[in-house]
């Protein structure tokens, strides 16, 4: 199969691409991560989100430890060709390593304080103990 | 007013922060851009999305030319403190410089081709001629 779809993408100077994951059922934006060329190819081949961990410097199959796999429903590319939006089914309903549905669980209030607005659905100890 | 809310953020090595804009009414993810400290402060002070243009190296009040202002409804910070999600009311219903609602208007089909799935609502010539 041709790699034209991968060549269309404008990878940054480090060969990376910002990726946004959105829940295909609720519309909630779940998380933001990075992909390299191999992780994007694997995401499509395997039908699940595979990111590139910049801190660990390795492929990161979302849910490989926690079980909170993101099944890919659709993927969209932005006008500049340098960001992708993944529509995913979030298994376990938890995308965040803190055990919450979304990583964006802190909201700025009128006093300019970041306030936690989402509860923990699953304890991190339970998610990562296996 | 204290700047603690700005100090909470983990700015990258260039002092920037990825920002995702989501339509507060439809849930559609509209665009992805970058902010620096000043642009985030102005976003809150002015109640509208103000980004940092990396290509032009200057503040970018979204809609300043096109009129397609993004009114801020809420802003959320992710678990790592290094990405923000803006919930906005998109004036003119157009976020993309191509005249579409969302910048994410190309979707990968089963033959691995990026296919345009959103129409142009307003011609770019009309948006930027003033």
From TrEMBL, chains A, B:
Phosphoribosyl-AMP cyclohydrolase domain boundaries: 31-105
Principal subcellular localization: cytoplasm
Single GO MF descriptor: phosphoribosyl-AMP cyclohydrolase activity
InterPro entries: PRA-CH, PRib_AMP_CycHydrolase_dom, PRib_AMP_CycHydrolase_sf
E.C. designation(s): 3.5.4.19
Keyword Flavoprotein among UniProt keywords: no
BP GO terms, sorted: L-histidine biosynthetic process
Protein name as catalogued: Phosphoribosyl-AMP cyclohydrolase
Organism encoding this protein: Nitrincola tibetensis
